[in-house]
Amino acid sequence: MHKEIEKYNNQQTPTDKEICEQLAIIINKELTEAENKIWHAHPVWFLDGNPIVGYSKQKKGIRLMFWSGADFEEENLSVKGEKFKDASIFYNTISEIKTKDVKRWLKKSREIQWDYKNIVKRKGRLDRLK
C-alpha cells in the first residue's frame, strides 16, 4: 500500500482507521494491478490512469465510492449526483463491511468503466470504456 494511504488511515479515529484499513486490504487484494495514491485528499485506486474506487471520511461515515458504480445495478450502492456515474456506500463500523459485496463491486469496477481520465479533455463529457 502507498505510504500516503497508510498516513491517511492513521490520521482517522480508531474506528474509522479500522474501516479504512479493512477497505484498503480488500481493494489491494482484489485490484492487484491497480495504482493507488492520495488523489484530491483521499485514497483512490486507478486502472490505466482511470479512477475506479476510493474512500474518504465524511460526516455520514467512511464513504466507499466507485466512479462507475451507478451502472453496477447494486441496491446497496446509493447513486450520488446526476452528472457523473458514481455510487457509494457509507460505513460507521467495521462490522458493516460485507467483504463479499465489496469484492463483487470491485469485479464490476473492472468490467464497467466510464472514462474519467479524459473528462477535462472532453469538456465534462463522460464516455463508456467498458
Provide tags for this entry.
130 residues, single chain, alpha+beta, globular, 3 helices, six-stranded antiparallel beta sheet
Helical/strand content category = alpha+beta
Uncertain runs with pLDDT below 50, 5 residues or more?
none
Shape: globular
How confident overall, as mean pLDDT?
Answer: 89
- Counting DSSP H or I runs of 4 or more residues, the number of helices is 3
Question: Which range does the strand content fall in?
Answer: 25-35%
- Give Rg in angstroms: 14 Å
Major sheet: arrangement of strands: 1-2-3-4-6-5
Give the topology string: H per helix, E per strand: HHEEEEEEH
Task: Characterize this entry briefly.
Helices cover 29% and strands 25% of the residues. The protein is of the alpha+beta class and 130 residues long.
How is this structure best described in words?
- The chain is built from 3 helices and 6 strands.
- It has 130 residues and is an alpha+beta fold.
- Strands 1-2-3-4-6-5 form a 6-stranded antiparallel β-sheet, covered by helices on one side.
Topology (elements, then pairings):
Blueprint: H1 3-10, H2 14-30, E1 35-39, E2 42-47, E3 50-58, E4 61-66, E5 78-79, E6 87-91, H3 99-111
Antiparallel strand pairs: 1-2, 2-3, 3-4, 4-6, 5-6
Helix pairs in contact: 2-3
